[in-house]
């Protein structure tokens, strides 16, 4: 199920501008990424982990195939309404810059690499690069929603 276009249009336009290098460089700067999405509400920990009293994520992260990851985010919306979804590349890159303490891992994002010889969904690796994966690959998930309106 795709989100309504008008609701995400400003976010998509900003993402495209940042990816196209509207800042004058070859892509968004770290400062632009960190400032992006101030109203986003992130899942406190990767799926399967819990936030302890000290604000630290504990436990073992669960790994999901791409379609399972989408469904897991939708299930969060049922428990805590807010239209949780997989993050865009720009959103997750900004979150990783804001929180360097996050465990380095490949996490699913909401895009597919359609230009590859074998098209498939993408992850963001710990260095902030997109990588195409087989849909049945198991990766970490951290869901996001657009926050209060």
UniProtKB/TrEMBL annotation:
<feature type="region of interest" description="Disordered">
    <location>
        <begin position="117"/>
        <end position="149"/>
    </location>
</feature>
<feature type="signal peptide">
    <location>
        <begin position="1"/>
        <end position="22"/>
    </location>
</feature>
<protein>
    <recommendedName>
        <fullName>Lipoprotein</fullName>
    </recommendedName>
</protein>
<feature type="compositionally biased region" description="Basic and acidic residues">
    <location>
        <begin position="134"/>
        <end position="149"/>
    </location>
</feature>
<keyword id="KW-0732">Signal</keyword>
């Amino acid at each position: 199920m795709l989100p309504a276009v008008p609701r995400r249009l400003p976010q998509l336009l900003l993402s495209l501008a940042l990816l196209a290098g509207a800042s004058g460089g070859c892509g968004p700067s770290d400062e632009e990424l960190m400032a992006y999405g101030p109203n986003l509400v992130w899942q406190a920990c990767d799926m399967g982990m819990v936030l302890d009293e000290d604000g630290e994520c504990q436990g073992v992260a669960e790994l999901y195939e791409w379609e399972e990851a989408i469904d897991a985010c939708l299930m969060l919306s049922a428990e805590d309404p807010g239209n949780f979804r997989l993050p865009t590349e720009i959103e997750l890159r900004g979150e990783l810059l804001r929180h360097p303490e996050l465990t380095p891992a490949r996490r699913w994002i909401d895009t597919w690499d359609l230009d590859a010889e074998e098209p498939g969904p993408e992850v963001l690796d710990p260095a902030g690069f997109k990588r195409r994966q087989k849909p049945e690959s198991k990766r970490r998930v951290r869901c996001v929603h657009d926050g209060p309106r």
